[in-house]
Design a protein that fits this description.
This is DUF1254 domain-containing protein. InterPro entries: DUF1214, DUF1214_C_sf, DUF1254, DUF1254_sf. Pfam families: DUF1214, DUF1254. There is one protein chain. Helices cover 22% and strands 24% of the residues. It has nine helices and 24 strands.
Length: 490
């Protein structure tokens, strides 16, 4: 009679037929993937061997899905720029309206975004003429690692500069007058936000921004901005097999770094390999589909049920620090921050030193809430209130923005309203200076100006942003209460 072994048994001393025998017992081992039959301690036959390989490759698909989230997100955004907007390398795209921003992961609805993607292998060295003024931005590679900030938190300190971006193997003999930035990858993302409160001054400031190949330095082209102009688009990671196709395509364009060689090895049994066509067989296609489905669930869990030590802003509320990366390079002392970057880049895009600022009055701060005070998911069919206490610690302004959990983008409600901020003078304030913001399918009478319309049957989450966070945020002495469900009035 065979003796079944449990998975835990293999963690201890192997069980032998007798003290003097070197032959493992035949039997079975019970595992999370089912029962594996043993013959002399080995998988008994092709069925058991295939089951183990299927599970191995499925696990690899899940883990490589999580690993690839940052690069797939930027590759998809670049693809949308090129195919939906007709924006070639270096073309600036401006996102101003609520409709424009509906395709961006966790965009803020208050400030305009100006974005550009470029492949330096195609353009050659690239110049970014960054103007002086109230702007914050920078340039990153396609792993979404910030290479340099620009503007208020960059080396120009808001005074403007000409930045020269050099790609792989590129050099320039005379760099006089330029701040040189060596990019670690061929593809780059440049993004900036105007923080100027006056709309006309903001427009004038943006008009001074330009980007062009160094080869055109003697006759730079005029600045041109294109807009989504109402076109539907989305830069979020595509789902299913489209995710892997986008990954395969961008891997062909980029060098493989030492930290990623092990993950590249995991992709080979899935039919994804550098310098080879994307041509998975039927078995691989099924595993890739399953890996994308479960991988996204894992990423979603990282984002919306954060388990990082020290993630909570304060013990008296459930607001969490959403940007848990130690540094924009995504590295900790002894490891790459895989889980932290998974959580952030599933729900958001880009990371810079300005977004992690610990200097009072500089950069931005981000707090996230995914549950109500009772610990339940935030339900678009119900009405909630957030009371923003008096004197929020923001040098510039604060904002509350609501996002759809499925898209991680601004909620696509008919009103085109997804945020409230201190830049809105119409907000109704309480006698003590606090502000009650209501999120629900209908406005609360008397607080129409403070209402963010939710969408019934859809879950949502919120970011509370502080622009120019002050000391009371940095030392967590300023409280921010939980989002509470309120009784609806008939």
């Amino acid at each position: 009679m065979s003796n079944p072994l449990h998975a835990g048994d293999l963690l201890g001393t192997p069980t032998y037929a007798s003290d003097s025998s070197d032959q493992l017992l035949s039997g079975q081992i019970y595992t999370p993937i089912g029962t594996i039959n043993l013959d002399k301690g080995l998988p008994a036959g092709p069925v058991d061997s295939h089951a183990l390989y299927d599970e191995l490759d499925f696990q690899r698909a899940c883990q490589t899905y999580l690993w690839a989230l940052p690069i797939v997100s930027f590759a998809e955004w670049q693809h949308q720029h090129e195919k939906v907007f007709g924006a070639p390398d270096g073309q600036l795209v401006i996102y101003e309206s609520y409709q424009d921003k509906l395709g961006i992961l966790t965009a803020n609805a208050t400030t305009p975004y100006i974005m550009s993607f470029a492949n330096l292998h195609r353009t050659g060295p690239l110049v970014i003429d960054f103007p002086a003024g109230a702007m914050a931005g920078g340039v990153g590679d396609f792993w979404q690692r910030s290479v340099t900030d620009m503007g208020e938190t960059g080396p120009d300190r808001g005074q403007g500069a000409k930045y020269l971006l050099l790609g792989q193997g590129q050099s320039v003999a005379d760099t006089t007058g330029y701040s040189v930035v060596q990019m670690p990858m061929n593809n780059i993302m440049f993004g900036v936000r105007s923080l100027e409160a006056d709309p006309q001054k903001s427009k004038d400031l943006i008009a001074k921004l330009s980007i062009y190949p160094l080869s055109q330095k003697n006759n730079p082209p005029p600045t041109k901005l294109i807009s989504p102009a109402g076109r539907r688009w989305n830069q979020g990671q595509p789902r299913g097999l489209a995710y892997w196709k986008r990954l395969h395509a961008i891997l062909q364009e980029e060098p493989v770094e030492p930290r990623d060689r092990m993950m590249m090895a995991m992709l080979i049994p899935l039919g994804i390999e550098k310098d080879k066509a994307f041509d998975p067989d039927q078995r691989q296609l099924e595993i890739l589909q399953q890996g994308a489905d479960v991988g996204e669930l894992m990423a979603m869990n990282f984002s919306f049920n954060k388990r990082f030590e020290g993630a909570r802003y304060r013990a008296d509320a459930s607001w969490v620090y959403v940007l848990e990366l130690k540094d924009p390079d995504q590295e900790d002392d002894y490891y790459t921050q895989l889980d932290q970057r998974t959580a952030w880049f599933y729900e958001a895009v880009t990371a810079s030193k300005g977004m992690m600022s610990r200097s009072a009055g500089l950069g931005q701060a981000y707090l996230g809430s995914y549950h109500d005070k009772a610990g339940h998911w935030l339900d678009g069919s119900k009405t909630y209130r957030l009371r923003v206490p008096p004197n929020p610690p923001a040098k510039q302004f604060w904002s509350l923005t609501v996002y759809d959990t499925r898209t991680r983008c601004l909620i696509d409600n008919p009103q085109g309203i997804g945020d409230k901020s201190s830049r809105m003078p119409e907000l109704v304030k309480n006698a003590d200076g606090s502000v009650d913001i209501y999120i629900g399918p209908k406005a609360v009478p008397g607080f129409e100006a403070n209402w963010i319309p939710s969408i019934p049957q859809r879950a949502w989450f919120a970011y509370f942003r502080l622009y120019g966070p002050l000391e009371a945020y940095l030392d967590a002495s300023w409280p921010l209460s939980d989002i509470e469900m309120v009784k609806e009035t008939s």
